[in-house]
């Protein structure tokens, strides 16, 4: 019965992936007709913590600082946490919350206002071993709540904006292994596409696409480090204007296991 459930779930998600690919192809052709693309350069650095309670339950938390470079300015400060549960073999489900502190999208803006955004989310992820490669899929749905702003100041509380649907395809390629056959250095390639949904979404159903390439180094079983590059292409609410962002990423990963080995 469990294998049948996994098969049905895999078939359903496969149809979703096929639909997303078709949409991306049509969206990509339409981009050539657009007139205004703003190019920006950024630096992201973050700390990612994995707290393992046992074989089935994990708490994932992260802090990211995102800054414009050339000129230098604050862009986003991100706090994200979520509880993850293993539901099937190689399948995990998660529920979490994200707090975004959003500074102006223009690094030359004279405003220093940081607008909070709350994002409750649910997700599914799975990994497949293909020869010496690892293929991963991540599905996430998040609701977006923005703090009200008036005359460049925070007022009132939060208002619901829209739902965002995310799908990420990942590929891990080991380059060098330790004596115990665990990965020491690996290359990580990821592509994530996001779509907006809701009554307020009129011209930007396609939200963004992120393609990243990283070099991951495992220091020991508890710490690892990654340096990478991301291309972030995002459609603005006008539907005809876009951000084209080149991003350098520096990431520290920290794993804590509470359950001792037998």
Profile the largest sheet.
Answer: 11 strands, mixed, barrel
Radius of gyration: 20 Å
- What fold name goes in the CATH topology slot? Porin
Structural class: mainly beta
Q: Hey, roughly how much beta strand do the residues contain? A: over 45%
- Number of helices, where a helix is a run of at least 4 consecutive DSSP H or I residues: 1
User: Total domains, how many?
Assistant: 1
Oligomeric form of this entry? Answer: single chain
Spatial order of the strands in the main sheet? 1-2-3-4-5-6-7-8-9-10-11
Could you name the CATH class? Mainly Beta
**End-to-end CA span:** 31 Å
Work out the helicity level. 10-25%
Number of strands: 11
- How would you describe the shape? globular
State the order of secondary-structure elements, H for helix, E for strand: HEEEEEEEEEEE
């Amino acid at each position: 019965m469990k294998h049948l459930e996994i098969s049905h779930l895999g078939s359903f998600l496969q149809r979703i992936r096929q639909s997303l690919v078709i949409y991306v192809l049509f969206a990509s052709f339409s981009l050539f007709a657009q007139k205004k693309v703003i190019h920006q350069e950024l630096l992201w650095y973050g700390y990612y913590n994995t707290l393992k309670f046992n074989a089935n339950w994990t708490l994932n938390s992260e802090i990211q600082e995102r800054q414009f470079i050339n000129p230098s300015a604050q862009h986003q400060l991100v706090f994200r946490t979520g509880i993850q549960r293993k539901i099937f073999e190689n399948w995990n489900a998660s529920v979490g919350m994200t707090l975004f502190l959003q500074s102006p999208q223009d690094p030359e803006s004279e405003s220093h206002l940081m607008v909070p955004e709350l994002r409750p989310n649910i997700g599914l992820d799975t990994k497949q071993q293909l020869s010496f490669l690892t293929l991963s899929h991540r599905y996430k749905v998040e609701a977006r709540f923005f703090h009200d702003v008036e005359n460049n100041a925070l007022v009132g509380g939060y208002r619901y904006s829209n739902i965002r649907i995310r799908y990420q395809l990942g590929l891990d390629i080991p380059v060098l292994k330790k004596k115990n056959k665990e990965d020491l250095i690996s290359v990580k390639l990821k592509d994530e596409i996001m779509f907006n949904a809701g009554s307020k979404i009129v011209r930007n159903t396609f939200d963004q696409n992120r393609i990243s390439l990283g070099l991951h180094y495992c220091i020991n079983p508890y710490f690892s480090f990654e340096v990478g590059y991301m291309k972030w292409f995002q459609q603005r609410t006008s539907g005809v204007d876009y951000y084209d962002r080149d991003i350098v990423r520096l990431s520290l990963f920290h794993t804590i296991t509470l359950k001792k080995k037998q």
